[in-house]
Amino acid sequence: MAGLSAKRILITGLSTHWGGRIAQALERDPRVETIVGIDTDDPRRELERTEFVRVDVRPSLIRRILAAAAIDTVIDTRLITDPLAAPIARAREVNVAATGAILEACGGPGSPVRKLVFKSSAQYYGAEADDPAFFTEEMSPRHSPRTAIQRDVVDAERELQAFATRNPATSVTVLRVATEIVDHDRGSRLGMFGLPVVPGMLGFEPRCQFVHEDDVVEALVHVCTHDLPGVYNVAADGVLALSEVASLLGKPLLPILPPWGTTLAAAGLRRLGLPVPLEALRELRFGRGLDNRRLKASGYNYRYTTREALLKLRAHQRLRPLLRSGGDSYRYEREVEEFLRWSPSVQRAAGGAQHDHEHVWGAPPDYDQLPADELMGLISSLEPEAAARLRRYEAENLARQDVLEALDRRLAHARRLGT
Questions:
Q1: Is residue 39 a contact partner of residue 52, using CB atoms and an 8 Å limit?
Q2: What is the rounded CA–CA span in Å between residue 265 and residue 124?
Q3: SS3 for 38?
Q4: Which of 45-49, 269-273, 315-319 has the highest mean pLDDT?
Q5: Which pLDDT does position 392 carry in this prediction?
Q6: pLDDT tens digits for range 263-311
Q7: How many other C-beta atoms are found inside a 10 Å radius of the C-beta of residue 263?
Q8: pLDDT tens digits for 79-99?
Q9: Which of 147, 121, 142 is nearest to 132 (CA)?
Q10: Is 365 helix (H, G, I), strand (E, B) or coil?
């Protein structure tokens, strides 16, 4: 395994959660010379040196960008894995047709691309009664795809396999990612965990395995900056029974879903205002586990176990109402970005541009009533900006020394990690 193998990188889906986060992570590596992000929508995260190009997935246009910027590595983050994130036809277009177009642009004689990283999904394996305890990367789905998303994932990976065969000089890496614990992006699965009760299926106790979003991003960086062709499962150590998940979230488990007629059950829940996709119902019945040893053998060390990732979700569920007034989200403004990046009038601080993200922040509701010991249990899960806002409010109002020291430790830890 070599050291850094990606220096000029193109990221597809820059406006997505994963595209923005991987761009931010790669920006912190000074060995990465160039980062280009493409999408049809504006970026949703503030970026310092990633160049954004608004473009669709026409192969001819992407091929021109790859050649002009001498891109050696492409990271494809666009795969839609949440069936409620887009209509079935739109998901199919993004997951299969657009993937094929990007592969067409990356392949062929004269292409500068030597590495392709694809963020796939554990939904490739499906969820069945006769599944193994843990899927290894060499295993294929036991049955034909049962859902639209699983069919998309299988078809997208088939396109990648064909690309790898046609382009043996290009290293292709596929990451099959378990259910992600994402602090600020609630998909259909995490939406169920945000309810007052955790719904379950009568007579079933499925095993649950998660992976924290920080580990997903760091795994993408790891395979991007090392020579690791092939398929890798990305899932945290440990599995939990659904009843344990409910207990860790501090909520009761309510087995209200029937084990038969899952399609009708899903339709009934939608009528009650609870959209639960068929994929989630199958996982609530059978569960799924991934063997993560191959990625760890490559040198990657997970930051969080399944249990620890779930506890971080609980912490953010409890703090979310307190942080809603924490300032406006980032909005991409092309003219402003171009001025900040290219104008000779902008004074550059040593070591790169420095940004002041502080906002005027009033008292969050109920913060003063939150006990210090309970608050301190949540501080380690705060994003750096949220921790900075809380520290300022705490210092100006309550001034509890133990809380301030805990916040200072969180901020110091973030600075050491470069976040």
A1: yes
A2: 23
A3: strand
A4: 45-49
A5: 85
A6: 666 666 666 566 677 788 888 889 999 999 999 999 999 999 999 999 8
A7: 9
A8: 999 887 888 999 999 999 999
A9: 142
A10: coil
In tens, the pLDDT along 148-205 reads: 999 999 999 999 999 999 999 999 999 999 999 987 656 667 777 877 888 888 888 9
Q: What digits encode the pLDDT tens for the residues 225-235? A: 899 999 999 99
- Nearest Cα to Cα of residue 54 among 78, 38, 71: 38
CA-to-CA dists, residue 230 to 157, 171, 173, 227, angstroms: 11, 8, 5, 10
Domain 8-304: which topology? Rossmann fold (3.40.50)
* Over residues 140-152, mean pLDDT: 92
* 3 token code pair: 């050291």
* Cα–Cα dist 180/235, whole Å: 9
> Tokens 């922040």 identify what position?
361
> How far does CA 341 lie from the centroid of its chain?
27
Domain ranges of the chain: 8-304, 321-342+358-417
Task: Give the tokens for residue 7.
Answer: 């220096």
The 3-state secondary structure of 196-262 reads CCEEEECCCCCEECEEEHHHHHHHHHHHHCCCCCEEEEECCCCCEEHHHHHHHCCCCEEEEECCCCH
Q: How far apart are CA 240 and CA 198, in angstroms?
A: 14
- Do residues 148 and 83 touch, judged by C-beta distance below 8 A? yes
Question: What three-state secondary structure class fits 65?
Answer: helix
Q: 403 and 370 in contact (C-beta within 8 Å)?
A: no
Q: Please count the helices (runs of H) and the strands (runs of E) in the chain.
A: 16, 13
Cα angle for residues 349, 352, 356 (degrees, 5° grid): 70
User: Are 235 and 215 in contact, with CB atoms under 8 Å apart?
Assistant: no
Sign of torsion over alpha carbons 352, 67, 11, 229: negative
d(CA 14, CA 124): 23
